[in-house]
Design goal:
It is built from five helices and eight strands. It has 158 residues and is α/β, with parallel strands linked by helices. The strands form two sheets. Strands 1-4-3-2 form a four-stranded mixed sheet, with helices on one face. A four-stranded mixed sheet has the order 5-8-7-6.
């Protein structure tokens, strides 16, 4: 059964490459369909890849090759929860190392301009505690690009 709600992501012309990268990088992710335009369309020709159906960590998505009209922004991001530093490093390094861009506080952008938050559960758990623990964890996070779990845990301990 198809999902009732699917995230549609606009790409210039490389939705298939992006979907394949996500499927190779994240667990419970796969490309489930590649659909070609049945006729010419504004900015494209019949037979070109028009849409790609895929999942990212189980979330259903569709990539639309719509041309250079709209661009991704930080107003939308995937937040990927991680359990270990190794997992955090693996996802961060995959995105940034594949033509992406590092940013602050666990955020990065892939080479297609899509924003990702690679967020260790140690950070979200610390923030959920509130009070002084959250303040210390938040202050530590504000000094980082990729999140360092050991530094977050040290901040939690005080």
């Amino acid at each position: 059964m198809k999902a009732r709600n699917t995230i549609c992501l606009w790409y210039k012309d490389d939705a298939e490459a992006a979907a394949n990268f996500y499927a190779q990088t994240f667990p419970d992710s796969q490309v489930t369909g590649v659909f070609r335009a049945p006729t010419d369309f504004p900015g494209g020709k019949a037979g070109q890849v028009l849409t790609v159906e895929f999942t990212v960590c189980g979330v259903p998505c569709m990539g639309l090759n719509g041309g250079d009209v709209f661009h991704h922004s930080e107003a939308f991001s995937f937040q990927i929860a991680t359990d270990t530093q190794e997992e955090t490093d693996r996802y961060w390094d995959a995105i940034v190392g594949n033509g992406g861009q590092a940013s602050d506080c666990g955020w990065c952008k892939d080479k297609w301009g899509l924003s990702w938050q690679i967020t260790p559960r140690a950070l979200t758990d610390a923030m959920a505690q509130g009070g002084a623990v959250a303040q210390r964890a938040f202050a530590a996070m504000m000094t980082m690009q990729k999140i360092d779990i050991a530094k977050i845990e040290a901040a939690v301990r005080g």
